[in-house]
């Protein structure tokens, strides 16, 4: 590869040291998975558990996508757990009690979610009330409203077509029972697309002389990701195939990666978080963007509420309790900055997986909820400390 | 009278800039000593050296205070010796009471428990001394600027001040408040307090000063004794501005075309204090290929004018007409102003102009993202090409456009800001202090860029505190003071003296 010669003389070790913040997250996820795989005696990566991992964490990941945009824009949303619970309750009332068609009820739920986000965003963006306060109020209001809506009771069960939103699987078109061919095909296709994108990006960066990742590391990094993807789809294929919710998560993640990295909209949100005054004086409508990040957050919180209710097959007054903290933690573990302006969708998703794997692994081990909270808290602190430490070293 | 303070051959260097070059200052015990000079001449730097903001060792030269060599490691050291500085921006905590502010960091307390009775009693005594009739318990933010100034002086007195330094004390005061303050200074002088006053207002200097030191370009030009009778405003003005202006500005063929941009009857009120009018009945125009300067001191309303025009980014109740090539234009939001062909290079590039934590590339396209996007999708190749193009055109010194702008020098950062605005392809550029804080070489490059713009038929409005720069670069100069234009001069008729006279002799 003549490309290796163009890299400006950095060894693999030196390169990793320089980019430790980007690689750290990936290493952390792998290390945590390896750790739990060993201590749970192989339970963590069994097909049924991998499937469970996705089902259990889907709503956190969905909301982390929206939360990343809110945090990049320099705000925070504490209300998402309550909103998620409220929307679940609303869906239950409409579908179970009022017998509304599932499609209609879901559409109403998503619209209500956006409206909730719009109201909160309005106060944050146009009245400059700190988002911490506005969404703290929202957190209390919607916690109360879901209690009121459910009158303190659980409502369920949901009809099957609603449940399949969360617990359904993509049917195998090839008729073979196991392994599930659709799952394998999707896995292989995803790997090919990822590798193609990575190569294209690398060659483009080469052209501008800004690529300095050693070739060996590039190969190794992509091989790890490709192997992980194939491994997961292989396992899934031996259980029940691709969960619907995994597919929607992947599609959503791709959409948000595209929005944040390639569109003017995404760029403007980063600019607002990076320096709101400079962005405003560059002709960017900062208020409207802040408003939109909250509308988007409301929409995703509503979707998460539907997914969560469908998985539990019931709406309970406690649904979504303290979930906002997991979502926010995922985003910060994923490397976003509290000050706004930086953070990546992929980081937030990996952050959510780190939280998810720890939850799952510790539950398998039978660690009490008390210790689980302590450990999660320490991991959050360690992740952010690692970030700040490396940033100080850079500067 | 003996000298209370002798500053000998003070030299202070910042990276790339010699802010003070062998400055000497001698202040006699019991006098009021005025320091005059243009913005950026080095007055504030000198006072920061004196008060220990720049600690001993960070400058060359010697300070002799009260007969001893002084080496202050920080503000606390100088305050312990009775040197108190009152800055132009008051350092009071708005939500604390007068008494709390006066004794902040110096509380009347035993074992950490505040003795409020004593605090209030002493505050009343100090307020009586400075002639401020307010209760010690009321909050500072309810006071006008003039009264806040008196609180600052009371605070200085509470620390047994021997040498009081006031940086532009009357800049924000009304005429009556200014007179009261000057009277107070004379009264304190009677009580043996020595003062140094930095001021632009020569009539005030003449009224209170016993001697005047003029500083220019970081060097002492003259020290004039008022008692000798040779203190005239003309003499001070001449010393403040008289410098060789040859060949500091690149030549330009001057040919102004039609009027491109015009503002009429512009009025702006302060965003928080609804009764304060910041810009008053102001009208101006600029022609194609013309460079128009706005001269004025800090606080005269230049930046407020520019920002109120540029998408109403400052002020409220803005009224007046703006037109582009004779057609009225809507400038009610920044994006509309940009669409109309306006660009505004802010005075403060770090907080208002750039996203420091982002790359040169991202900053370059910030004001015209649509220019590198197709239907909302950014084309990163074009983004890089645009950034590369401006890197070459503007000669931005950097290994690549993927560097974060925080790693660039001031001059190169300023070029990135200019690049950002050039990429919006404006007709009218408003440049607010375009060369502040950058070295001479980079200044010359910026002047060349301005000349290129004017040669390309762009209209340029240039706000600057450096009068030689305006004289060297502009075709026409508006002189601004207290929110209005007090004069309009053709460059060939203008001189620093004529501009300064318009400002200070109002």
From TrEMBL, chain A:
Entry annotated with the keyword Transmembrane: yes
Output the Gene Ontology cellular-component terms: plasma membrane
- Identify a single GO molecular function assigned to this protein: transmembrane transporter activity
Task: Cite the InterPro entries for this sequence.
Answer: ABC_transp_permease
Q: Tell me where it resides.
A: Cell membrane
Say what the protein does. Part of the binding-protein-dependent transport system for D-xylose. Probably responsible for the translocation of the substrate across the membrane.
Please give the name of this protein.
Answer: Xylose transport system permease protein XylH
The root-end lineage is:
Bacteria, Pseudomonadati, Pseudomonadota, Alphaproteobacteria, Rhodobacterales
From TrEMBL, chain B:
Question: In terms of one coarse class, where is the protein primarily found?
Answer: membrane
Cellular component terms per the entry's GO annotation: plasma membrane
Localization per record: Cell membrane
Q: Which residues form a coiled coil?
A: none
For this UniProt record, the keywords arranged alphabetically read as follows:
ATP-binding, Cell membrane, Membrane, Nucleotide-binding, Repeat, Sugar transport, Translocase, Transport
Q: Which GO terms describe its molecular function?
A: ATP binding; ATP hydrolysis activity
Listed Pfam families? ABC_tran
Q: What protein name is recorded for this chain? A: Sugar ABC transporter ATP-binding protein
